[in-house]
Amino acid sequence: MDTAVRFPTTPKAVKAHALKLSPRMNVEKAFQAIMRNCLDQIEANETGVVKYRDVESLHQMRVGLRRLRAALGMFDDALSLPLALRAELDWLVAQLGPARDWDVLAGSTLPAISGSVEALAPLVPVQLAAADKANALHAAAGEAVGSERYQDLIGHLERWLDERAWRAMQLPADRARLKMRIADFAKGILEKDQQRLLKRGRKLKQADPEARHRVRIAAKKTRYAAEFFASLYPRKTVRPYVGALASLQDELGLMNDASVAASLLGQLSEGDAALAEGAAFVRGYLAGRAAQGDGKVRKLWKRFVPLRAPG
């Protein structure tokens, strides 16, 4: 007889599962498949966020939300989410975003710095204060995801998607777009996204944080589109393109994390002399690291520029 004590384990955070589109699909069917894929990722991470306050589950839920909003933006010329639902999505993003920002500071940025420099006593209270802030925001995010408001939002999104409620508000031209082959539609989206990214990327040399952020957002949207439509194209074409985008996005993300961290540290130390020295040290350290990151970003950009979007 097995008498071992068993303890419940934290559920694993759920990433987006592979999306398979058929070239024979029309735009409407493909939109439903993409939205379903995003909603599945969001809903699969609910327990981790609500019950376990799991950092990675929160991150993956946010990724699912970003993918969903990117998909809505891609198809906005053919159909639109009602304004009330858009407002509720904005509310959910606002509940999760601050917790994730403080998670990165407390769980990644500060430990990396403390591990790479000699012991610095003033850093300890900063780490403790950041962890307290992250924990409080995690609790708030968990309450939001566990709320009736969240359940209403997900229920309305599900019904809107399953019942194709956008049809009631469409003009004939919109209906015609939804009947297009998805391969033709995807080609236009990917070309448009690439042109926007190339235009913004021209300003990367010695760019300020705001300009880098704009490039990062464009890279992220371009990557999501390429991943959504990846099954429509040969793997040998898609993989190098998505890989180059992912590397560029990741490095720009690290630089953005440093910029956000500097802002959060300013909030943390404002009016608290005990945190001022450690916060100032970290901000200076991050500024120096950001300068080093510029060179790496430019190399990754040069690797991406010659590539062409699938299709």
UniProtKB/TrEMBL annotation:
Residues 24-306 form the CHAD domain. The lineage of its organism: Bacteria, Pseudomonadati, Pseudomonadota, Betaproteobacteria, Burkholderiales. PANTHER family: CHAD DOMAIN-CONTAINING PROTEIN, SLR1444 PROTEIN. This is CHAD domain-containing protein. It comes from the Bacteria. InterPro entries: CHAD_dom, CHAD_dom_sf. PROSITE patterns: CHAD. Gene3D superfamilies: CHAD domain (1.40.20.10).
